[in-house]
Specification:
The structure holds two protein chains of two kinds. By secondary structure, chain A is mainly α. Helix content of chain A is about 40%, strand content about 5%. Chain B is about 30% helix and about 5% strand. Classes of the chains: A mainly alpha, B mainly alpha. Chains A and B meet through helix 1, helix 2, helix 3 and helix 6 of A and helix 1 and helix 3 of B.
Chain lengths: ~150, ~180
């Protein structure tokens, strides 16, 4: 009987240790900063013409748009190619209601006079999809250099 | 019989852990970079202050371990988000509910491709016939091409969950019950 009690105490202590560690892990997890210089997954920078005409390049946040629209709305109905930078978008087309202009017309979303909301990237940022697997696996050192780490 | 102290203690631990994993605010350690620190937004842009930071929207959505740290398929199915299916009334909204089991995976588990999860977001024309032929097994894809952004890699690794999540696609163990299921088209 005495032996059994001891065993119970031992188990209790192990459980307690486990609990302490798990609590520590949960609490510390909330304070860990992941990576301070990384764009959101799927953010696309479009710099087909912007730099040349002295505008900031465009940042297209996929996450923001897919909360509101399914992929098929832009990539099927509106004819956006899947490849970043693969669409010959310009402001004339947008004002005519093509591409971004199908929504950014003051009816579905805010209209084109709010230049800075789209043209918001640091000048010189090349056209690319940020945080892509390719960017991370193939050229992680370049990406780190570019982000100044 | 009265439960022993140890059993009671274990039950308490289970309860605490169970509750903490159920409460989204307690177990959620997801972090998103602010627009000021993400390395692509111009700090001198006056509009930076009015843009929504990713964390504001994404922390409300069901968690995932990679990409946006959001399980987008679950977010859609469980009604966390209600993204539009079409802009034009004449657009036919097509959803296909069928799975394809892909067995040419060398030594890795087989790939189960769910049409439903894909067509809830995408239209048939996004993949067929340009990226993938409709006939099962007739598209010569492989991981080298996918990792370079072709086939599945057009979206997975760019906007859908990244290519580092091997087992999300390679999900059916060889020699398992699921591996002998007939392939539907």
């Amino acid at each position: 009987m005495k032996k059994k009690m001891k065993l119970h105490r031992l188990v209790d202590r192990t459980d307690l240790k486990l609990l302490v560690w798990m609590t520590f892990a949960l609490v510390s997890g909330a304070f860990v900063t992941v990576d301070v210089t990384r764009a959101e997954y799927g953010d696309v920078v479009i710099n087909n013409y912007s730099d040349d005409v002295g505008m900031r390049p465009v940042i297209f946040p996929h996450w923001f748009h897919r909360v509101r629209f399914r992929c098929k709305v832009c990539h099927a109905d509106l004819g956006f190619q899947l490849k970043a930078g693969g669409n010959d978008i310009n402001m004339v087309k947008i004002i005519e209601g093509q591409y971004c202009g199908a929504c950014h017309n003051g009816e579905i979303a805010w209209s084109v006079e709010h230049c800075n909301l789209c043209h918001s990237a640091t000048p010189g940022t090349p056209t690319q999809v940020h945080e892509s697997t390719l960017q991370k696996l193939v050229a992680p050192s370049d990406a780190r250099k570019a982000s100044g780490k | 019989m009265k439960p022993s102290r140890s059993v009671m203690f274990r039950m308490l631990v289970g309860l605490i852990l169970g509750v903490s994993s159920w409460c989204p605010w307690a177990a959620d350690s997801r972090q998103w970079t602010s627009l000021e620190k993400d390395g692509i937004h111009d700090q001198e842009n006056p509009a930076l202050q009015v843009m929504q930071p990713p964390a504001d929207a994404l922390r409300l959505l069901p968690p995932d371990s990679a990409g946006n740290q959001v399980n987008w398929v679950k977010a859609l199915r469980d009604g966390y988000i209600k993204p539009r299916t079409n802009l034009y009334e004449t657009t036919e909204v097509r959803v296909l509910d069928s799975n394809i089991l892909m067995k040419r995976t060398a030594e890795l588990p087989y790939v189960l491709f769910p049409h439903r999860a894909h067509t809830e977001w995408l239209d048939c024309s996004n993949c067929h016939e340009k990226l993938f032929r409709s006939k099962t097994g007739s598209t010569p894809m492989n991981m080298f091409a996918i990792l370079q952004g072709e086939y599945c890699g057009q979206c997975h690794g760019a906007v859908a969950f990244p290519l580092t999540e091997c087992t999300r696609c390679h999900s059916v163990p060889r020699n398992s019950a699921g591996a002998s299921q007939p392939v539907s088209k």
